Task: structure prediction
Amino acid sequence: MTPMSLRILKALAVGGVTSLVLGACGGGGGGNTNTGLASNQTLTFPILGDFGTLDPAIADAETDTEISQNMFDGLVKFDNNLNVVPDLATAVPTPSADGLTYIFKLRSDVTFSNSDKFTSKDVLYSWNRAAAMQGAYATNLSGIDGYSTVAKNTVSGSALEALLEKNDPSVTMSGLTAPDPYTVQVKLSSPAGWFLTAIGLEGTTGYIVDENAVKQNFDNWWSNPATAIGTGPFKMTAYTPKQSADFAAVANWWGSPKPTLTKVHLDISVNDASTAITKYEQGGYDIVGYGGYSNLPVADVLRIKGTSSESSQLILHPKVRTYWASFNMVSDSSRLAKGPFTLDQGQSAHDLRLAFDLAVDKAKLVQTVCQGIVCTQATGGLIPPSLIGYMGDNNDPLAKYDPAQAKTLLNSADPNHTKTANLTYTYDPENALNKPTAEFLQSQWQDNLGVHVNIAPVSHSQFIQARLKGAYVLSRDGWQADYNHPQDWFDNLWGSAVGCPDSGCTTGYTTPAYDALLKKADSEPLDAAKADYAQLNQMLINDVVYIPLYYSVGAFLIKPYVKGAGTNAFFDHYWNEIQIMSH
Amino acid sequence: MAATAAAVVHRPAAPEQASLWSDAWRRLRRNRLALAGVIYLTFLVAVAVLALFYTPYRMSEVGVTLPYSGPNAHHWLGADYLGRDILSRIMVGAQISLVVGVGTQVVVIAVGVPIGLMAGYFRGWFDQGVSFIINLFYGIPDLLVALILVFLLGPSLTNIIIAIAVTRWMDMARLVRGQALALREREFIEAARASGAKPFKILFGHILPNSLGPIIVQATFGVPAAILFEAFLSFLGLGVPPPQPSWGSMAADGIAAIRIAPHIVIAPSIALSLTLMAFNFLGDGLRDALDPRQRR
Amino acid sequence: MFTRGTLIYIGQRLILILLAVVGVSSLVFLAIHRLPGSALFSEHLHGQQFQLLLHHYGLDKPLWQQYLNFIIGMLHGNLGESLVNRGVAITPIVVREMSVSAEVGLFALIFTIGLGMLLGIVAAVRQNTWVDYVLSTTSVIGYSMPNFVIATFLILIFAVWMDNFTQHTFYFQIGWSGRYGTIGEIWLPAFALGFPYASIVARLTRASMLEVIRQDYIRTARAKGVREIVIMVRHALPNALIPVITILGPLVIGIITGGVVIENIFGIPGLGKEFATSILNRDYNIVVGVFTGYAVLVGLANLGVDLLYVVIDPRIRY
Result:
């Protein structure tokens, strides 16, 4: 079939040993000291699954933006300590006194990797395009005046490009203007304390693309090295879908630090963390944990921790993800799951929710499911530690475990166990922790309440879709912060404000008090808003809307000779900070 | 799959006389491997029945001991990733495997035997149609069809049995068709036909009883094939839903931890392999016993 | 050896394969579009944004129109665009993965037949000795072990323990480096994939060898004093081959389907791995594409087997 098969035949004849690999650690070898840079500055690592898209306008996966953050820039970005710092802008602007106007001064020395000059026109093009394309993070631009008009756009592809080229009003945000080539003025429709954090979100709608490159293939320009053009320190040089992608440092890049790596090779062909770890241990990769692999299997993490030669290569870093279990809180014609937990059933439903919450030994769950390593118990509210809005350790009363009270509550609210008969907890098995968590919950409710709950795995996409439609009485739930602002947590998950206009949020929970307070909090500057967001979390606690389970911890394996690689709570370190030392 | 390929290869035997049965049993008893298979399977059925009433621990109870802990005096086969007792789960898993294995063959016999009988006896367009469909099914990768079916129907015990039966019925149909084709020309069938017996009576009163031997052999080989299929489906995450433990899903769960706790994958793998082996040895023994032509 | 008749036969078969491919992919297309859930959905993307995407993929059209577009596209060799990996054309992926699966499968097949026949012949020649018993028992064990169990333990032994034991000097390199795997990457998956089938081939070979050995012409040859090895290779083996060839069809299909599991365990970027990934992702377009790829692969493999009959048995003419 291929010429290969002949060689294969020969190999079979000679026997297995020839096909074993003679492995040695590079060429550098023994005598060298560990201080100098390696001559080969190629970084190799696997990513879990192929890119969804690298187009900032429609990107919605962390795994993709962790790559594209090295190809594109925003006006501002986050540094490794999560401060908002200037990127393509010369400084982080201060809003006008009414909180409505931001003026960005742009750097004049920036070029795209195809030598196109970067000017304010590019900002207008990129942001209008992103707003018009209505990708997942388009709402990050929703504060800008005129966004709601552009968001109604239904034109796509080259037709949209034509509209953008002639600055058609239907795809031009009126609040976004360019007084000169190096100034961008943004006028918001109402104050939004979260605006700068939202446009700094790496690799998404706030990031800048090159119109000359994009218009050559409006939808798929990012997948072709010739048109995958950004202002970042790395550019794509080769891409074979589902197999590999290569990136090279941009020569004479405008920014700093100048990249040391010359090449980054991504292996897309391995889709399994255990295989990836084995390959890493065999010397095939420099890093495992980037590009979606930060949820390394517990068993492997446990083993590596116990291996003296490798334990120092293991980096555990809390990620900004919180997991909880959700109740269906509202049942109506559009939300078909009923269940005993809905708000309209008053106190007895409240007691049932509390009973299901208190019956779960969350500390034991963390010990069993995560081995106390890859997650920590969520005891301080929805927002994980290290983020603005964290309530502080052990301050969430829902995190308690009290089987006796749980049993009492259940017996008073549902003495005959009729309401709680035949409940189902639904989860998506793609995340390796979800299945053991589900089995753990099932066992706890059985043991502490005497209630048998079925558990049903449903594939991720189907799960999300059905959950948003209110199809599940009990379900796995969770959120990963997009940026360091509490608004991210309270807009998108509860209430009927901006994030969930179609009341399509997971639990359906909404009260007039919640909506009013959320509206107030969102319009305030961050410092003033903190107390209001805390009060919002308290509302959720009072109504027992969630069963807090755990905050997740990312695990990375990084070879000792790779310097500067790592992660913070949100995103992986930029490639231009990474160096490969001789080894 | 492997096991069925072996079964497919086996060519249908000649019809047996009724007096053969006691003879066959004698021959089967002399076949030590087959006898070992029978003993093991008896034991397995006993375990599966016992698990209905008693397991050392509740099979779904988490944290009965430290997760990943190896075999010890209290937990003979150790604990899995949630600290559940593996022995208890293996015992319950035996039920699943046996139900899937035997259940599939019941469906296969119920579907394959009548179709095969009629195709072989009546011949003509019905036979051509059936043969065409059988060949069509042989041309499609069976595992993929089963996967898609389970995916469409949703993973449950019944659906898994249906999905496997859909990909397996034609082995039986083809075998029975061959039997019917051969038997319909024999004198005693001619005689029955001449004496005015209805086709239904001939098919189920004369041809079927004389084909029982090969059918039993085929069904015996079909059981491990179905169990293996279930294991594959479970392994790919489309098996019996939790907390029901299936050996296939237990092995799949264990593979992630194979380097720190190989016992998690070893226990169900051995149970699975032994069971498949026992059925295969029994099938071999039955074939030798029921088919004098192949006697050594 | 390929007469005009054979060429016509090949042509007819190719047309039949095309029909089968269209049939299979149509069935899968129609079946899978009845499924709930979609790869297009994510936590962040719903409501109007979702409608825009549906439009992009033409999923807002009625089913018959989608189907028509799909069939027209397929006949032009265009299987559409991935739902998860937006903008990625499926046809080149499926073609590449098909060749990878074929490579692994071919290697496994060679291994299956080679090892299987060798063991079968040895068992037959040493009939009713301990060698025979050991080999016969091993072969039952062989096809009683699920290939994922075999694969897992092979990885443990060759990729992990050997790596540790030899201090990273000799080991099986896991994964897949280029478009086609290297010999170092392919022999273990091929072994895991082929071993159960090798057991079957061994049983078959043993049985038919025993039958052949009892034939008169072999006795005659023995009586004439022809050396035993010559009898075996020259006379017995060709006849013993025939039953093996008759099961090549099921064997090939078995190996192809077995690849679904093996490719996933070994991280081989073939059709099987794509199948498992895309079906979990609900990337319907790729699922249909993968089935199309499988239909092509099975069709071509069966055609190959049929042509092999012509090569081996000159009496067969099509």
In short: The beta strands of chain C are 170-171.
